[in-house]
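TA notes, week 10

Several of you asked for a full example with nothing omitted. So below is the full record: structure tokens for the whole chain, then the designed sequence directly under it. When grading your own attempts, check the secondary structure regions first.
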């Protein structure tokens, strides 16, 4: 069986089914309906793997060796799998997380439960540095990252080549772990158009098209919306984006039909610049993209064309994210209401700080958030970045949140205990205490020489 992506040199449509692990499970349904309404090659991507998500998946796999993939895998894929298989729409997703082969097995089981025949599911490998690098090279990366705590995960951002290879071989689903987010879309483009690996301008255009898709509904007005300033229609039913890519690198951004939201020049430019450190040199494993001369223009209702993206040779190194055991997070919340509520909540925060000092925990980084007055602008030392006088506030409805980074669970328990004690130790009127203690992960980044990596793909058994 050959992939539908190889059928011709015509336009390729790629839809987004998810922009992060917590995205809506039904978002891909109207996207697939729209793709099926058009002839020609099509593909669907699911981007569900943030750095934190991958580290949590690694922890999950250590506790349960059979786990470690995207926990909502079935909820994302089940609503559209039958339509995609019957319509010849390949699915590409980084929902493999820490266990791509496990995700592939589960997808095969899902297909069987839906009455589908055995699928050709490919798995991309080589991103997990803890299993592919020798100890000496890992020591070099650890030194570069200044990490001296136990590692949980170390993953390199792979590119699109292996995804493309699997699709050319007829894969109906491609499961990856850590790849660069835009590579999920660039892979189908490489497979369909057979772009050369040094055709930098086209690779850059494909990468930025993938960048447009990778955050799901953001480009359709989701993260853009601001009532009265940037109004977006029917945001409760916001659609997810679809890219129409042409062989020459010109592409159009649109969205699923009969959905809310909007795609216009403003939403596209905002997403185009999202997380871009340097518009003239956006580094990815496949290419260095330059959008400084990009032309973004509306060509119809919910249709925006982008041209003028340029590319330069890919970097000699690729980024890797190393996650390690971090401090414990201690959290305690308590509400104060009525006259003088702000002053009472400020006093409560100071009482907790003073109590922890007397117990030898004055070194802890403690954050006090006064939800209702300020829960964003203070830093972890309690210093205000603006002129905020909490006790003088007239707010009569506040919730105090105390958070601390503790070296041990015992220290974390001391923090939450002091918040709990505010019930009767004062100040007056506190209620609704809630506490939580959470083991945390921290992360660092480093650059890995490309020649250290051995990315590959294979069909799952």
């Amino acid at each position: 069986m050959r992939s539908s992506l190889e059928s011709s040199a015509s336009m390729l449509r790629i839809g987004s089914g998810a922009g992060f692990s917590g995205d809506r499970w039904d978002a891909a349904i109207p996207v697939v309906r729209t793709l099926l309404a058009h002839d020609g090659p099509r593909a669907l991507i699911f981007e569900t793997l943030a750095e934190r998500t991958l580290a949590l998946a690694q922890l999950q796999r250590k506790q349960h060796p059979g786990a470690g993939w995207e926990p909502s895998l079935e909820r994302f894929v089940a609503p559209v799998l039958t339509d995609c298989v019957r319509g010849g729409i390949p699915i590409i997703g980084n929902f493999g997380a820490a266990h791509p082969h496990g995700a592939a097995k589960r997808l095969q089981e899902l297909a069987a439960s839906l009455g589908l025949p055995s699928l050709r599911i490919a798995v991309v490998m080589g991103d997990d540095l803890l299993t592919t690098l020798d100890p000496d090279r890992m020591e070099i990366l650890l030194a570069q990252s200044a990490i001296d705590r136990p590692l949980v995960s170390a993953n390199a951002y792979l590119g699109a080549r292996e995804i493309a290879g699997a699709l050319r071989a007829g894969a109906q689903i491609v499961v990856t772990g850590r790849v660069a987010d835009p590579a999920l879309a660039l892979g189908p483009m490489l497979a369909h158009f057979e772009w050369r690996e040094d055709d930098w301008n086209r690779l850059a255009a494909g990468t930025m098209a993938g960048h447009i898709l990778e955050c799901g509904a953001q480009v359709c007005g989701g993260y853009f919306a601001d009532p009265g300033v940037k109004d977006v229609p029917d945001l409760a039913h916001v659609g997810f984006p679809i890219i129409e890519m042409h062989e020459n690198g010109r592409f159009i951004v649109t969205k699923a039909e009969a959905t809310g939201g909007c795609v216009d020049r403003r939403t596209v430019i905002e997403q185009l610049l999202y997380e871009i450190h340097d518009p003239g040199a956006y580094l990815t494993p496949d290419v260095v993209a330059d959008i400084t001369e990009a032309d973004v223009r509306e060509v119809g209702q919910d249709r925006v064309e982008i041209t003028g993206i340029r590319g330069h040779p890919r970097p000699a190194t690729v980024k890797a994210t190393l996650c390690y055991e971090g401090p414990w997070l201690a959290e305690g919340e308590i509400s104060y209401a009525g006259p003088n509520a702000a002053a009472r909540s400020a006093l409560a925060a100071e009482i907790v700080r003073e109590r922890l000092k007397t117990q030898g925990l004055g070194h802890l980084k403690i954050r006090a958030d006064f939800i209702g007055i300020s829960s964003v602008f203070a830093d972890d030392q309690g210093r205000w970045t603006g002129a905020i006088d909490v006790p003088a506030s007239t707010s009569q409805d506040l919730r105090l949140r105390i958070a601390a980074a503790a070296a041990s669970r015992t220290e974390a328990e001391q923090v939450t205990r002091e918040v709990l004690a505010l019930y009767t130790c004062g100040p007056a009127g506190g209620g609704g205490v809630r506490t939580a203690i959470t083991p945390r992960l921290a992360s660092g980044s480093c650059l890995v020489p490309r020649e250290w990596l051995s990315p590959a793909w294979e069909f799952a058994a």
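The first helix runs from residue 28 to 36. Use that as a sanity check on your answer.
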